Amino acid sequence: MNENVEVRITDSSKGKGLFAIKKINSGSVIFEEDPLVSCQFSWNAAYQYRACSHCLRPLETAQENATRLAGHFVELPYPECCTTDKTKTVSCMMCAEQYCSVECQTEAFNQYHRTLCLQTAERNNTHPLEGLNEAWKQVHYPPETSTVMLIVRLLARIIQSPNKDAAIEQTLQFCHRTVNEDAELAHNLLGEKFADQISLLHNLLLAAMPHEGIEQFLTPAGFQGLLALIGTNGQGVGTSALSQWVTKTSDLTLSDEKRDVLDKFIDNLYDEMDEHSGNFFNNEGVALYTLQSACNHSCVPNAEPNYLHNNHRLSLVATRDIEEDEEIVISYLDECLLQRSRHSRRKELMKNYLFLCNCPKCEEQAEEPDVTSEEDECMSE
Ligand SMILES: [Zn+2]
Ligand SMILES: [Zn+2]
Ligand SMILES: [Zn+2]
């Protein structure tokens, strides 16, 4: 299935894992894959972060992106470094959903959008799908980690699949929890005080979707299982027209003087954006990846997900040399959490993924006292 990796059953309690079947050099792409399904975060979309409804590719030019995030008109030099091609943007004739290309529109329609497309007249807060999205926004504020709309697409995908059994099988491969574990994970995703909201979200989902062929996912336990699924397997996706432009400008051949002017311009721009948009720069969403989801966690990872194509296509990149038969491991914790104490890391992993990390770093630090110090907290919390 892939020249670099294969999924193997590990002898530990972790179940399956991804292993290198040959030596992989640091910095190289281990594999690339498109998601089973992806979706922009609900608040990210509501705040006009303009991305393709299907693949999350930016729909703004880098200059429009910078202008919106800085809150005033910004003229970007070297416009040829912008990679957005707005001539390819298309909209759904029925609901005005926007896509980066006809290819994305067609793929979305054939996979799930035929079921979800709302007539223009219906596209308001009273439509059950919009109601579900609004209800989700009220229980899950930024910084976002998931969206119930990913569940909607996942179910619509099954409904539209020419082979329902296979589509259900593909979905179930992400589920391997008990009912109690699902409940715990679902509550974590929604936050403790919003636990009651599960039944509201569930009822809105029932009103928003056709039921035929997906009955097993529409019971209260089935819905909780889906929340647990997106909570533990959902992989964050980020795209940006501006960061693409910055990357392209770094490849330009410029005099030292011009390079210096450009660097100062970019630094200043990011300061202004930070002030106006408070660190939320990217189009952000969440996706489910079949192969990547087989990757276990380690606090000393040897690989990380990247979005080199500036859309939802994931590239898993080796962060150090990996030997043949070595397990490929990524970090489920963000950069900041990863730097925290053994106790904090393990607490976070247990809470969100229900496992106790026994990676080499956690083993090595086993003698550390189990305390969480003040300076151990992350900025985002
Ligand atoms: Zn697209
Ligand atoms: Zn539509
Ligand atoms: Zn660990």
SSE succession? EEEEHHEEHHHHHHHEHHEEEEEHHH
Proportion of strand residues: 5-15%
Largest sheet: 4 strands, mixed
Stretches where pLDDT is under 50 for at least 5 consecutive residues are none
Ligand roster: zinc ion
Mean of all residue-level pLDDT scores: 91
Count of alpha and pi helical runs: 14
Percent of residues in helical segments?
A: 40-55%
Strand tally is: 12
Shape: globular
Alpha-beta content class? alpha+beta
Main sheet strand line-up: 1-2-12-9
Gyration radius from CA atoms, angstroms? 22 Å
Termini separation (Å)? 40 Å
Give the structure's gist in a few sentences.
It is built from 14 helices and 12 strands.
Which key features would you list for this structure?
381 residues, alpha+beta, 4-stranded mixed sheet, 3-stranded antiparallel sheet, 14 helices, 40% helix, globular, binds zinc ion
How is this structure best described in words?
With 381 residues, this protein is α+β, with helices and mostly antiparallel strands. Among the domains are: 199 residues, no CATH class; 41 residues, no CATH class. 40% of the residues lie in helices and 13% in strands. It is built from 14 helices and twelve strands. A hairpin with a 6-residue loop joins strand 5 and strand 6. The longest helix is centred in the C-terminal third of the chain and has 22 residues. The model has no long low-confidence stretch (mean pLDDT 91). The structure holds zinc ion (3 copies). The site of one zinc ion (ZN) has 6 residues, from loops. It is found in: Cytoplasm. Pfam families: SET. It comes from Aromia moschata. Keywords: Cytoplasm, Metal-binding, Methyltransferase, S-adenosyl-L-methionine, Transferase, Zinc, Zinc-finger.
